Amino acid sequence: MDYFAIVSFDVAESSDGRKKAVDEHRARLEELDQAGRLLTAGPMPRVDAYGKVMDGFQGSIIIAAFDSLEEARQWAKVDPYNAEGVYMETTVYPYKKVFG
Predict the structure, then answer these.
(1) pLDDT recorded at residue 48
(2) Are 10 and 59 in contact (CB under 8 A)?
(3) Is residue 80 included in any domain, yes or no?
(4) Which among 63, 45, 33 has a CA at the least distance from the CA of 9?
(5) Any residues with CB less than 8 A from the CB of 95 and at least 6 apart, and which?
(6) Cα 72 from Cα 93, distance rounded (Å)
(7) pTM reported for the whole predicted model
(8) What is the C-alpha end-to-end distance of the chain, expressed in Å?
(9) pLDDT tens readout for residues 10-65
(10) What is the DSSP string of 64-77?
(11) Given this model, what pLDDT does residue 54 score?
């Protein structure tokens, strides 16, 4: 297995969708963690034009092990946040862990 970074960006008003899907979203991450496949995951706080952190989130990053890029893309595609319209865009990148 190799690591892949799943980088997703939220729509402008994502807080309601996040609230609706957060438990299912986290349950999937917990499954990866229990299987020893999750390196890290978390939301990216929203910032203004000056870099000041604001309420809400602008997206999420998940770094986890999958058998292939396609498997990582398929896993990301069915994220509960997608079903709730939270994400406007998700891109999956190969990731090489060097430190940590």
Answers:
(1) 86
(2) yes
(3) yes
(4) 45
(5) 2, 3, 4, 5, 39, 63
(6) 9
(7) 0.92
(8) 18
(9) 999 999 999 999 999 999 999 999 999 999 999 999 888 898 998 889 999 999 99
(10) EEESSHHHHHHHHH
(11) 87
What domain range is 82 assigned to?
2-95
DSSP 13-73: S-HHHHHHHHHHHHHHHHHHHHTT-EEEEEEEEEE-TTS-EEEEEEEEEEEEEESSHHHHH
Other beta carbons less than 10 A from residue 22's beta carbon: 15
| In contact, 48 and 54? CB cutoff 8 Å | yes
Q: What CATH number has the domain bearing residue 39? A: 3.30.70.1060
Residue 46: count of CB within 10 angstroms of its CB? 17
In order of 34, 36, 53, 68, 73, the CA distances from 90 in angstroms are 24, 23, 22, 17, 9
Sheet strand arrangement including 53-66? 38-47, 53-66, 2-10, 87-95
Q: What's the structural domain count of the chain?
A: 1
